[in-house]
Fold these 2 entries.
Entry 1:
Amino acid sequence: MSGSSAGAPGERSAFRRLTGRHASRLRLLRGDRWGWLVPTVFLVVVVAVRYWRDVPGSGEDWLLMVPLLAAALCSPWATAVFGGLALVASRLFIMAEPGPNLRLERLALGVSVILLAVVVSFLRSRNLSDLARLQNALLTAREVVVRPIPPGWGGVDSSAAYVPADAGSRMGGDFFDVLSTPYGARVTLGDVQGKGLAALSTAGAVVGAFREAGYHEQDMAVVAARMEDGLRRHNALLAAADPGHEPRLATAVVIAFRADGTHVDFVNFGHEGPLVLGPRGVRRLPEEQNPPLGLAELTGARRTQINRVPLDPGETVLLVTDGVTEARDRSGAFFPLVPWAQSFLGTGGGRSAKPDTLLNALMQALAGHTAGHLRDDATLLAVRRTVPGTPAPRHP
């Protein structure tokens, strides 16, 4: 997550609900601080049952399960400790009732199981360490595309959140950015076709073109053309490296806040129209007026349609990817974004809500609708002009 609302309690709570299933699955594999409880409880139960029932020859074989459980949840050293405890308990039970069970074969079997459990625990720990390094590398690559946005950057209040459907990998093609330029703030949000590293690299090409052209070019038509050309060259490069590469497309929205303070220039590349929330209610900006990025040559589009729409100082623009609008509940119903926005404005203070308040409420509503399980990455960006009287930071 990034933006002025990063770290807000409500947003963090909604994020935990959305990613709880994946996170709990990872915690179970790693064990965390409570992994030792499972083999401990199992060991105590087996010893107690064996002691109170006092059935000769019963329970010793069950003790071999203790190091195997520890191998799945604990470190190699903890696994060895649990194995030693299980072996000692087994030997004590057998020595208390000497008989045919007091054989070296059973001792060798117990030692072999413990050694095997330690080896398994070592391999699991090493694989988890490699996985953690890989996830850190992926997060670093992701932050190149989706970078933090300081509060008030570009003279606008903004709040953004990125919630991956796969909390373990966090690999998707969603992107957003807010630029501070000599011509005013410029905002983009979009979604690249597909998943994985290929989608992430394509998103990097699109947002990289936006960052350069959006800062240096005043004409929004030129900015749009540079973004289209950046994706075209990226697809050409990948096709040259891999003849079987399929060109990727990207839907996107670009908004330029004009210096007059009353209008914005708006470009839509096959994306769903953003919502504007304010004292006048909820309205939707034009959608899908231009083909998605990467289709200009195929469709023969010669000009990019740019809209100049009014935007009052108290109005907030809400941009989302299809991971939000296509989020389903258990019955398969889509998330009702427009009715939710209308209901949000009807609550106390909704008409003058800040972007972070709007985004926190939307994240919680989305988490409740999906029961914490997203099928696709969800990216959200809320932005409005800075409240009059607040000094805007200078562009670099």
Note: The longest strand covers residues 184-192.
Entry 2:
Amino acid sequence: MSNVIDRLDNKEDLELAKAAQRCIVSALDHSRAINISIVEEGVERIEDAPLLKLPPKVLRLFSDLLGAMAQGKAVTIVPKELDVTTQEAAMFLNVSRPYLIRLLDEGKIAFHKVGTHRRIRFEDVVEYKETRRKSAQSALQALVDQAQELDMGY
């Protein structure tokens, strides 16, 4: 389904990720940088290093990835147009597969069939998860507001 980059677990790797992110962010802030030099250990002159040309969007993606990894987070890269199975979608949403099937049957998440198997666009699964997160956040805020109106002490 995706490529998972596990957490960086040693301090040296975390520091390298932080430094690389700062370097990329700095380059993007000061120009429309598209070049990165790859300098291997032992190379005497930077002019001899291969030059990698990348669009600024890709550099921003690298920066975001490095930032997340520097914070000790695992990172998953998933193609936007990916179709997932019901089991994969259920695992991503942290719900049971039968519950996910019910959501599909109720029309809460769009799906299509490949033969007799349901397939869900990963983008739709992410959208459903974000909608649920926003709904939960809104409900929590309403409870907080109500508690303050009733002077409940928190």
Note: The chain has a mean pLDDT of 84.
